[in-house]
Amino acid sequence: MIDFKPTEEQTELQKMARKFAKEVIRPAEMAIDKMPDPDAAYQSPEFRDTLAQAYELGFHKMGINEQHGGLGLDPLSTAMVWEELAVGGVGIPATLLAGSVAPAFLSVLAQGKKDLIEKYVVPYCEDTKADNISAWGSSEGNIGSDGSNYYDTKVRHETSAKKVDGGYEITGAKSSFVSNGSIANLFLVFANVEPEKGICGSGVFLVPLQDGVQRGKSMDKLGMRALNQGEVFFDAAHIPEDNMLMPPSDNYPFIHNAIKTVGNLGVGYLAVGLMRAAFEEALQYSKERVQFGKPIKEHQAVGFRLFECYQAIEAARALLWKAAWTLANKFMGDLKLSAAARVFATNQAMKHTVEMVQILGGYGVSKEYNMEKYMRDAKLLQIMDATNEIMTLKGIKLL
Ligand SMILES: Cc1cc2nc3c(=O)[nH]c(=O)nc-3n(C[C@H](O)[C@H](O)[C@H](O)COP(=O)(O)OP(=O)(O)OC[C@H]3O[C@@H](n4cnc5c(N)ncnc54)[C@H](O)[C@@H]3O)c2cc1C
Predict the structure, then answer these.
(1) Which pLDDT belongs to residue 1?
(2) Distances, alpha carbon 46 to alpha carbons 92, 93, 226, 297, in Å
(3) Which fold is adopted by the domain 252-397?
(4) What CATH architecture applies to the domain 134-246?
(5) Ligand 1 centre and the CA of 62: distance in Å?
(6) Domain residue spans in the chain?
(7) Which fold has domain 8-126?
(8) Residue 234 forms beta bridges with which residues?
(9) Best of 95, 97, 138, 145 for a ligand 1 pocket test (most atoms within 8 Å of beta carbon)
(10) Using CA of residue 282, residue 288, residue 291, residue 296, what is the dihedral sign?
(11) Contact 126, 68 (CB under 8 A)
């Protein structure tokens, strides 16, 4: 029997996340969104203190193994928490999600690297001040969707890892889209080792902020302004041999797609939380705003829009929960299902945030209200972590 009832623990987690989203994330996101200088925004107390509080509550380590200091929550529990957090705003949760990629990679896919886990994962999990922020970089100026173009050997990461005495030297640049790129102090870097093998000639390396690593300016962008994004430059940055977490291999597509399976879910949860924020505010507004002698909710054109958004939230959540459940019950989950859930959720978020703006009429586009921000934030969800087109192509291949 399928059971949609959260456990007691899940209900407590949801409550805690809901409170944090309302009292801390929402006001911080609204303030950061209006800050004109992104570099200053990511140094502001609104950003830094919010992140520190999130770390203190453990939201940064939910999926990390307990034996490494994480909370070891199952995918369904984390799904519930990410949705609640995203109702407050999607930028801060995206910061936490992107920042957990490197520690999670170490904790799950590189369990043999005990010294690295002691050095990076344990302190990350113990951190209550958000001093340990990481980023992962695959995309480059010329490698966007081509990050999934595994079999054209002319396509390769320009960032390279050269074997030298005692380790590797990393040289190159990662794109201005790298989440946390200009604020991170640890980077998971996809760099080519065997260029003749194209993308599959890349390995995955752990590179701390050090000599030879420079962070670029923060990107100024349309939405998700509470998520830092910025270029990262490597100039013969020397790392020990052990910091190669994954060598180039024919398994590259398998590992890359496994990361996407998990990443898709995170993006999907953000989309559902974002839709809920827009829906809840539009619903409230529609009950209060009176035109033609009655609350606008009672005009069919408005009611229909609200009910369609409600359907989208429920359908997207159900699909995401099924994909999360599959991840918990099947080795590496199901990429086709997680791609379907993510593409559906993010497309619905884009569509319905536009519709919820319409419900507020002129107030929908006013910066005095939150609604226009939701619409701007939604656009980025269709692109991050591979575009919806690329995820659809991956899904079609697996049909
Ligand atoms: C919010 C956000 C966060 C991100 N975080 C990170 C991060 O942490 N680390 C990181 O490395 N990168 C990150 N990225 C980069 C992201 O992975 C890329 O933006 C994405 O893969 C698309 O690459 P591109 O922007 O270069 O677009 P392109 O690949 O140039 O694509 C342009 C357009 O062409 C379409 N297209 C391309 N190829 C095909 C095809 N074969 N069939 C059909 N359509 C196609 C695309 O769908 C898109 O519409 C992030 C991006 C965003 C927006």
Answers:
(1) 65
(2) 11, 14, 10, 35
(3) Butyryl-CoA Dehydrogenase, subunit A; domain 3 (1.20.140)
(4) Beta Barrel (2.40)
(5) 27
(6) 8-126, 134-246, 252-397
(7) Butyryl-Coa Dehydrogenase, subunit A; domain 1 (1.10.540)
(8) 172, 213
(9) 145
(10) positive
(11) no
- Residues whose beta carbon lies within 6 Å of some atom of ligand 1: 98, 136-139, 144-145, 147, 175, 177-179, 224, 229, 380, 383-387, 389-390, 393
* H runs (alpha helix) in the chain: 8-20, 26-33, 38-41, 45-57, 75-88, 91-99, 101-104, 114-116, 122-126, 252-288, 300-329, 335-359, 371-381, 388-397
For every residue of 100-161, DSSP letters joined together read THHHHIIIII-TT-HHHIIIIIHHHHH-SSS---EEEE---SS-SGGGG-TT-TT---SSEE
Instruction: Look up residue 68 and give its DSSP letter.
Output: G
Relative to beta strand 213-218, strand 244-246 is unpaired
Q: What is the largest CA-CA distance in the chain?
A: 79
- DSSP annotation string for 193-247: S-GGGGGGGEEEEEEES-TTEEEEEEPP-SS-TTS-BEEEEEEEEEEEGGGEEE-
**Short-list 178, 174, 277, 175, CA closest to 227:** 178
Say how many C-beta atoms besides its own lie within 10 A of residue 197's C-beta. 17
Question: Which residue matches tokens 């009832």?
Answer: 5
pTM: 0.98
Which tens digit of pLDDT belongs to each residue from 75-124? Answer: 999 999 999 999 999 999 999 999 999 999 999 888 889 999 999 999 99
Which of 101, 231, 232, 384 has most ligand 1 atoms within 8 Å of CB, for mutation? 384
pLDDT tens for 178-189 read 999 999 999 999
What is the pLDDT confidence band of residue 4, given thresholds at 50, 70 and 90? confident
CB neighbour class for 2 (10 Å; exposed up to 12, middle 13-18, buried from 19): exposed
pLDDT above 90: percentage of residues in the chain: 97
The yes-or-no verdict on residue 72 having pLDDT over 70 is yes
Residues 371 and 317: their CA atoms lie apart, in Å, by 21
Q: Which of 23, 104, 20, 28 is nearest to 62 (CA)?
A: 104
